[in-house]
Amino acid sequence: MRDRPYRRRSIRLKNYDYSSSGIYFVTICTYNRQCLFGKIINGEMILSETGRIVGIEWINVAIARENIMLDEYIIMPNHFHGILWIKEINNGIANFPPKMHQFGRMVSGSLSAIIRGFKSAVTNRLHRISESSGKAIWQRNFYEHVIRDETSLNRIREYIISNPLSWELDRENSERKGEDGFYSWLASFKTMPKVKVGAR
Fold it and tell me: What is the arithmetic mean of pLDDT over 80-88?
């Protein structure tokens, strides 16, 4: 058990336009790292009813927005990992033009706005069907990483898929027995430019 509050180290890129077209890896944790979404049994994630709702609402992110495409994702006991593609749509055609805005500003269609909507949808649905109304479900912030090349995209996909198998090394597990080095590897990319990668 940690003896002090855990602070997520963001690798958010300064002056990067988070509403621009691109591919993003996100991690969202439950409030106080509570295991609300299920449990790991023999390397397999067994979802609770809450966990199933998280999955439904994540799929709805793309259903409700024509410029969003979802990639690999995993619901873990106390957090969620996902890859999403944000495309810009002009006249029905997806393209990838650059654009800028003031860093830190909440902009409609930005990554922050999308994640805020997803978290709110999960919370509202849970509050409607349970006695947990008013209780916090999520940590306030989330972790994000801009995916810049095909090699990184594939490594992150593999990490997501195999995450239940490495739960004992997961940094969100308060009883973890080691470190897998994945986030150290991600941190090495924080000053690299974004490049296009092919869709799956």
Answer: 91
